[in-house]
Amino acid sequence: MAILKVIEILADSKNSWEDATRNAVKTASKSVKNIRSVFIQSQSATIENGKVARFRVNVKITFEVK
């Protein structure tokens, strides 16, 4: 039986929600090992001058605790 833990991370990107998700996993993997999955809880964007400036994601990252 594996023991799993879930953490919540907010991340953003100028390019896309997918890129923001990749940024979240990349940042988390610097200090968290054995990442198993990522769940995108919500998506949003910031607007500047009538245009989308940043894509934001709120994700839950699941990893195995050894």
How are the SSEs placed, and which strands pair?
Layout: E1 3-13, H1 17-28, E2 35-48, E3 51-65
Antiparallel strand pairs: 1-3, 2-3
A few lines on this structure:
With 66 residues, the chain is α+β, with helices and mostly antiparallel strands. The protein is 18% helix and 61% strand.
What does this structure look like?
The protein is α+β, with helices and mostly antiparallel strands. It has one domain: Dodecin subunit-like (2-Layer Sandwich), CATH 3.30.1660.10. Helix content is 18%, strand content 61%. It has one helix at 17-28, and strands at residues 3-13, 35-48, 51-65. Strand 2 and strand 3 form a beta hairpin. The N and C termini lie close together (11 Å).
Index terms:
alpha+beta; Dodecin subunit-like; three-stranded antiparallel sheet; 66 residues; 3 strands; elongated
Q: What is the name of the CATH class?
A: Alpha Beta
What is the 3D shape? Answer: elongated
- Strand content is over 45%
Largest sheet, spatial ordering of strands: 1-3-2
Whole-number average pLDDT? 96
What is the fold named in CATH at topology level? Dodecin subunit-like
Computed Rg: 13 Å
CATH-defined architecture: 2-Layer Sandwich
Number of helices: 1
Q: Number of domains in the coordinates?
A: 1
- Helix percent band: 10-25%
The beta-strand count equals 3
Run of helices and strands: EHEE
Q: CATH superfamily assignment? A: Flavin-binding protein dodecin
Task: Give start-end ranges of low-pLDDT stretches.
Answer: none
Structural class by SSE content: alpha+beta
The description of the largest β-sheet is: 3 strands, antiparallel
Q: Ends: how far apart?
A: 11 Å
